[in-house]
User: Fold these one by one.
Assistant:
Number 1:
Amino acid sequence: MNILNVLDSIGRGGLERQFVELLKGIDKNKFKIFTIAFEEPAISYIEEIKTYSDVYFRIKRKIKYDPTVFVKIYKICKQMNIDLIHVWGGMSGFYSIPSWILAKAKFLNGSIRDVDRKKSFQQLINLLILKFSPNVVANSYAGLKAYNIKKG
């Protein structure tokens, strides 16, 4: 199975640490891991991610909502024959939804990491993506409840 993980950033935060720990535990005989990141801060998990991913891609955005990113992710999905797209944040979900539909891959949204639903344009996009996502995981039941995601 080919899994594409899409992250907004690979800095040194809790989300990124969880991602690296997940990578360490994946059976490389059963799964091929591809990773895309939009941001590479100076202090990051880049070396660990490159070590545990089979292929790593950096997609730079020229502007926050760069339409070329949609095409770049789709091309990666088609070239690498991706079976599952796992998004780790709001922007990664925003950019990955068209590829999920067009490439006919499964989609897993892992963007819930808090219980604070701020009122912002970015948060509105995140909520819409969560409602549109067929599969959602969170690091707590409180997060699922805060975002009104029903357990399945």
Number 2:
Amino acid sequence: MNSAKTVKQAAGGTSVLDKAIAFSRRHGAKRTNAPEDGMHCILNPADVVQMLQEAGESDPFLLAAAMLHDMLQFGAVTETDIASVFGSEVGCIVAEVTDNPRLSRSTQKALRMTIAPNMSRRAKLLKLAQLVASVRNLATPTPPAPWDEKQRNDYFDWVEKFSAATGVQNPTLQAIMLAELERARLETTASGR
């Protein structure tokens, strides 16, 4: 069963989420790993939705934004396109979590830390779900990017700092994040990657 189908079933067929899944399929761009540019991995949007659902989040606008979270960065759509279909709430959430691709990864991360405390609750939840899904991907036996142990641990430390900067928005998501970070650090150290 594919992730989008699992997410849809878990959401009970939420119409705005169904619409987001269809929109993402129709307008999504090809996502490629770019480890040379510092990309840790490219996430399946359904994994981010699933992460939020694991944490007990059911807000249809948040889940739709999660499904569309990378459309501005990798798709050929604008915030206005998203807002015209899903409303300004979803458009704003997606815009809030989108990094400017013209900036270096280190600049993007520094900017994220600066704005983290001022992000909306939904954007904080979505960004944390993205980061936890990234940590999960990096801790797999065949991670998507050829980062060494130090690079991975630096990233895990940054995720933890970002989480602290946002404050606890959802205790369950926070607990999942801490467990995934611990597992990822152990896996990374054990494999010597």
Number 3:
Amino acid sequence: MGDQLTREQLEQLRKPFPASKISFKCQTKPNEKGNSLVVAYIDARDVMERLDDVIGPDWSDRYEKAGTAKGLVCYLTVCGVTRADVGDDDNENEPVKSAYSDAFKRAAVKFGVGRFLYDLPKMWGKAKPVGKSFM
């Protein structure tokens, strides 16, 4: 096991994911024209796979309650370096799972995983209500 995160590993972590691994969801409630901001995202399992492929077993995650009612902090440690971020539930059907996934993916972004998604252009689309959220 390494105790140092190399430049090559960071470059591999930052590589964009294939289009088949990217999904889209409405990020905002519809505006007066019925349009929502649509954002691209990747699945937490794909982030785990990227970490496994690039780092091997030298990564771990741990969680604790955040200052918000539903939030969690993920402490992601990769090759001895720990970075943290907060996630919140944004899924009415699985709020706890959603908070863990969100926190994990946000912490992984601090290692470059999925950061390319933030460079994509803003997209707007017609939204239709589905339960308490929009599609």
Number 4:
Amino acid sequence: QTRASPLGAAALREARRGMRLAEELGLPLVTVIDTPGAELSPDAEERAIAGEIARCIATLTTMKVPTVSVILGQGCGGGALAFLPARTVIATEHAWLSPLPPEGASVIVHGDVLHAAEMAERQRVRAADLLADGIVQHVVPEVDGESPRDLAVAVAARVSALLREQVGGALAVGA
């Protein structure tokens, strides 16, 4: 298993090209969030990472085609927030979303990472918290012993159903 790397400005520009293409072709767009965040470096700042995050958010919020965001695992920082604002957001049961990782929040507040679990609780980053707070509309259960393939099939089924609902709703409104 490889560890995901932070998203750079170039990756976010590429994602926006995909968003624009989906809009031009009238295709639904699904974003998948499983990232440790956006790249944090002087080089990333020079390449306008903050502006690219903002442009991704602006593009997603103004799209006319059906959109679904899937929080699949960790959703951290601007890299995750750039792909979040879809019409419908779903999360797997053990996924989480936070603008700042709980370890970082612990260092800021307590000067160490020992309070990360407490910070995660206070930040309400878990899928169940996100659902209760209205950030996520659906949570896909993860069954103990379930294969990654089974989880992928369950997520794909939920995404497919949500896209059908959005397309049906768009047709009803346009009719």
